[in-house]
What does this fold into?
Amino acid sequence: MTEIKSPFPKRADAHGMSFVFDVPVEVTIELGRRSMKIADVLKLGPGSILELDKVSGEPLDIYVNNRLIARGEAVVIGERYGVRLTEVLVSEGGEAL
It folds into this structure.
């Protein structure tokens, strides 16, 4: 069995950076985007469908504080949605992009 290593440091390996582990960050999962005119937005109502720029099955983008850090796929866990990470984006220095 191959062990998957995270590019992010564990708490014990944080090199004195443990104080940042409790800082809240905003995590955003982007399903897709669409540009629209205000007039078209005002026409939206219950039952309206917005076609997005991503194709079904394409990875979802995962942002932390508006910075793309990973990609994943949507999953259903019980009655809730979740995201399974399929790719963590890292730079050559080992830091998240």
User: Anything to note?
Assistant: The chain is about 5% helix and 30% strand. The helical segments are 38-42. Residues 23-88 form a domain with the Surface presentation of antigens (SPOA) fold (CATH 2.30.330.10). The beta strands are 27-30, 60-64, 67-77, 80-88.
